[in-house]
Amino acid sequence: MTRIYDRVALIGLGLIASSLGHAIRRQGLAGHVAGHAKTEATREAALQIGFCQSVHATAAEAVRDADLVVLAVPVGAMGAVAAEIAQHLKPGATVTDVGSVKQAVVDAVAPHLPAGVHFVPGHPLAGTEHSGPHSGFATLFENRWTILTPLPGGDPAATQRLKSFWEAMGAHVDEMDPPHHDLVLAVTSHTPHLIAYTMVGVADHLRRVTESEVIKYSAAGFRDFTRIAASDPTMWRDVFMTNRDAVLDILGRFTEELFVLQRAIRMGDGQQLFDYFTRTRAIRRGIIEAGQDTSAPDFGRTKVEES
Amino acid sequence: MTRIYDRVALIGLGLIASSLGHAIRRQGLAGHVAGHAKTEATREAALQIGFCQSVHATAAEAVRDADLVVLAVPVGAMGAVAAEIAQHLKPGATVTDVGSVKQAVVDAVAPHLPAGVHFVPGHPLAGTEHSGPHSGFATLFENRWTILTPLPGGDPAATQRLKSFWEAMGAHVDEMDPPHHDLVLAVTSHTPHLIAYTMVGVADHLRRVTESEVIKYSAAGFRDFTRIAASDPTMWRDVFMTNRDAVLDILGRFTEELFVLQRAIRMGDGQQLFDYFTRTRAIRRGIIEAGQDTSAPDFGRTKVEES
């Protein structure tokens, strides 16, 4: 039990914030966790589940006396929250966030914060297809990366303390600048999600293949697309609205590449397909070696007798 | 222990055939399992692992006296195998296959088979990212669909017996005609795989985002693409070569739809994105209700304390 902050305020009480609350309690990382969510039902759930010790009807009340304030609302709502809490922050407090886009959050939040408050933007690369205060669990961040994007001229001690906080919850922590974060995430997360949403939408529109058949036979590959296409719609809308340039860049590359493979199919060029599929298989092996997935047959979903 | 066939011959000894061998042995579904693979090392592995009781240097030898012959080679190799075994099949035997495309297999195999042999094409919708004789396990088909595409004028009793065989291994069995199978699979499997291969290829080509970063941060969504882009390159080459029309049809629809979303991002139309993402989320719920995936946070990959 290592206390890192005396008082932590969670603004927004969804999947990430509730998981933070559970992890803080389990590791004893804070003396008190205060929470705020817009709806009363969510606030009451947070108290009842126990990942907050106090809940507050406004963000301004929740951040009072907090040493660490975590903005865990959709990216599009960050600016308004920052404006609301700015005058209520404790001098010397650290403000961080968990948004999936970083430059837009910096642009929206930084102008509001008073001098003497440390702003260290962050993004835990962890999540499930579920959202809301009931969806959190203490191990969500274990063995996952959290990226911090500290700003030029910021206080290194505040960044280091926040880093220790994430590491105490089992996360690996990296630092990079906000634009680089947004490009890396456009490749590894944002564009894959848009593509998955699109494929699921195509299946939804097809009238010759009934919805029931698509669902019945989803284990053949489609299932993995629906999983990542089931995340919170508000969060993802905001991601695409705020990381537009990087996503459009990667989407353009994706479309070019898809047309090359489409042409190979149309022309019957099997060798080109075979070579392509052999290359992509190697990337998969890299991910397993990096410990970011399991190689168990069927990914641990079914009982395995031989391996 | 219900014996359904006296002697089963597995032609090709990869993931599907080895899983069949394990499941047959566990359930006592055959008196003897004979196997053939082109390479001696694979044949010896099958004997040593024990999912075949005998192995044979040629497919012609392996099918001798078999009541059920399972063609478990890539779709592009089915015709040559059928030609080789045709004159060695036992009268009254059933020949089936496990290919991911059905009309092309019917076209390649049926002309070779003699009268008195029952051809019942099939496709188990089950697999992992692994291939080869060491990758099989007895529960691979449990709670998964196997689609049979019996031909007009075929023997209903032979189809019924094959259906019982799959059901004894825990599979659900459906019947449909080959072109409908190929369209359904183009939506639920073939096009998603091509898209996943493409996205992994795009990441591979990006020079501004190093491969190491793509791999490190893959848990943010990209990981799920690499998983389905890691399947056997030969198998997938043959799928796209032989189900070309249906895949090109679905790819065309996918591209149209992607352009609509891309335009919404470019124009800043958040409402359109939000509505789209809300619809696709409903499909995901259908899959979980149909028992084709787990809704556990992080899909059972990490230990969960709260749910």
Q: What would your notes on this structure say?
A:
- 2 copies of one chain form a homodimer.
- Chain A has helices at about 15-25, 40-50, 60, 80-85, 105-110, 155-170, 180-205, 210-215, 220-230, 235-240, 245-265, 270-290; strands spanning about 5-10, 30-35, 55, 70, 95, 120, 120-125, 145-150, 170-175.
- The first copy, chain A, has about 300 residues and is of the alpha/beta class.
- Chain A folds into 2 domains: about 5-175, Rossmann fold; about 180-270, 6-phosphogluconate dehydrogenase C-terminal like domain (6-phosphogluconate dehydrogenase C-terminal fold), CATH 1.10.3660.10.
- In chain A, strands 3-2-1-4-5-6 form a 6-stranded parallel beta sheet, sandwiched between helices. In chain A, strands 7-8-9 form a 3-stranded mixed beta sheet, with helices on one face.
- The longest helix of chain A has 28 residues, at about 180-205.
- The two termini of chain A are about 40 Å apart.
- The model of chain A is unreliable at about 295-305 (pLDDT under 50).
